[in-house]
Amino acid sequence: MKDSIKFEVFRKDEAACEPIVKFTGVGHKGQIGVLLKNESIFREFKYDCWSYKGGQWFNRKDQHPDRLYASKPNNVSNHAEAWAHMDQAVCGIVVCGMNIWQLTKERRNTILNAAAKYDLAVYRFVNGSLQKEEL
Fold this sequence. Notes:
Radius of gyration: 16 Å
Structural class: alpha+beta
Number of helices: 2
Strand content: 35-45%
Strand order of the largest sheet: 2-8-9-10
Number of domains: 1
Distance between the termini: 20 Å
Shape: globular
Largest sheet: 4 strands, mixed
Order of helices and strands: HEEEEEEEEHEE
């Protein structure tokens, strides 16, 4: 998890992310994610999305302006995605469905250390609400 947080903090490409206004958190209890600044989002979809170029499909979109975006409904999911410019976009760490003190000591310490090292706030996402944790 430590390496994953570091990767997200320092990545400079573009990446798919899930808009928090659409995210339900159901079935994600205890999962950890990063929160991105709103201004880093440059394209939103109501459904799952991907990118492609010249008929060839890609799993992600990067800085190439000739790539296009596509999206289609998924009848079994309420999932939506957006594209974000990741360079300095991460502004927090999010724990889904519980507060940080309910995590195992190891996971909690990893999050607290990363938050201090990268100057990030820690949030919990419970019942559709994002709340800043008091550390």
